[in-house]
Write a structure and sequence with these properties.
mainly alpha, Four Helix Bundle (Hemerythrin (Met), subunit A), 2 domains
């Protein structure tokens, strides 16, 4: 998957429009003049994966190379401007045909900021929390953010619950040094944490149990499907317990 700001497409269109209306007397050399605009147009054909149009642009490339040999103060002649406009008009047919098969997806607004879901999962957790997570949990929460941003709600739920369980195991093992439950299953870990002389805060344990019973266990069954609103609610629940585990972890190691 490749992220591309839509401004790049706008600049591509501007370059095409600029060449389409080239007129006699326009400067050929220099910043934002004809040669630079042609080069920019070619770079966008490569960037946006339009190889057919790029191959079809051989006349434009020949035209560009001829212009490049002109004097530094050269401006388009009437014949040159007419020839360039015609080359672009012909090339547009291929460009529009090829680009019609290239799809771009627009991320729609969610209750959670889309840019943070895509690029900054760290900022959606309490300060310092993300960096305390084991690598697999960081991966799962980043993937969950991408899935929510692109509307893949059920996939996002799987990543959220996997990430939360990974954090729980890390948290549990940091507290319980001997007599750990085997295997490290969600329910037994929470139960043993709650039975300790100095258990983690009850709101944390209660919330972990709620996520296990209400979401984690049902999600393991193939009939469970999430919609975008439900998975955003789950996101809030999972982030809450992850923040609480991180806070409790820090408190225990500072005392």
């Amino acid at each position: 998957m490749q992220y591309q700001p839509i401004g790049r497409y706008i600049h591509f269109g501007v370059a095409l429009w600029h060449l389409r209306r080239a007129d006699a007397g326009w400067p050929v050399h220099g910043e934002r003049d004809i040669l630079e605009t042609i080069d920019t147009f070619f770079s966008y054909l490569n960037e946006f994966n339009l190889p057919v149009t790029r191959r079809a642009a051989y006349e434009l490339e020949e035209f560009r190379n001829e212009l490049a040999e002109s004097d530094a103060d050269h401006t388009l002649t009437k014949d040159e401007s007419t020839g360039l406009v015609q080359i672009i008009a012909d090339l547009e047919k291929t460009l529009f045909a090829e680009s019609g098969g290239n799809l771009a997806f627009i991320v729609t607004d969610k209750r959670i900021d889309a840019n943070k879901l895509l690029f900054d999962m760290r900022s959606l957790m309490s300060p310092g929390t993300f960096d305390l997570l084991p690598g697999i949990a960081q991966h799962d929460f980043v993937e969950a953010g991408l899935c929510i941003a692109f509307g893949r709600s059920t996939a996002a739920a799987f990543h959220l619950l996997r990430g939360t369980e990974a954090v729980l195991r890390h948290f549990y093992c940091s507290i319980v040094k001997r007599g750990r439950v085997q295997p490290l299953h969600w329910g037994p870990m929470v139960k043993q944490l709650g039975s300790r002389n100095k258990p983690p805060p009850m709101p944390l344990l209660d919330n972990l149990d709620n996520i296990r019973n209400s979401f984690r266990n049902p999600t393991q069954h193939p009939e469970k499907i999430y919609d975008i609103e439900e998975v955003q609610d789950l996101f809030g629940l999972c982030i809450d317990v992850v923040n609480r585990m991180a806070t409790s972890f820090i408190d225990r190691h500072q005392t």
